[in-house]
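Sample entry (236 residues):
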Amino acid sequence: MPPQTPLTPSPGSPPVEWVTATGLVGYERAVTEMEARAGAIAAGEAAERVWLVEHPPLYTAGTSAKDGDLLDARFPVFRSGRGGQYTYHGPGQRVAYVMLDLKRRRPDLRAYVASLEAWLIDALAALGVRGETRQERVGVWTARPDKPPGLNGEPAEDKIAAIGVRIRRWATFHGVALNVAPNLSHFAGITPCGVRDAHLGVASLRDLGLATTMEEVDAALRAAFEPRFGPTIAAA
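Predicted structure, serialized as tokens:
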């Protein structure tokens, strides 16, 4: 990935609120709160916010989701307004809902998504994992030389972080999901992000042999966020 120009806010902007939820947050509650906050941010009535959550086990369908990619509805399924296809959320996965005002930064969707990818790659590097992007696949991937290659010799790769965003009046919501230590078998109920190639799977930090805690992940995410998006401030 080429270096990304930081999407720091215009001078004088207040810091981004950094909020970490306790316990599991229901998906419907999260969407309601995100939409309300994004509307207030767009209207200039609220500070920007990053909200870190864990969800109970569930599947969400993005705007590009195909019905055939829901293989086993073993968990509740939610139609989401974010971009992308089917994904899984559950305990052990850090979801970061990012609510920023791109009018204060740069009103450029592609630059925003690229910055989210770069943010995740920086955080993973601090945790000892090499994350990479692929032009034809959104999200962050990691090489798996320990797994069989594809039919044509393509090297095995696993997705370790997913991205799905929505923008309304240049205020962002939804965000990213980083697999720390979720139950990876839960992804078998869907075709994750519509990817069917046998050499492309899903990974987590635990699956890669790392005993990283959620607190360590959160610290890495915050440290990597600030150089790209500007200062943060802890909020209740």
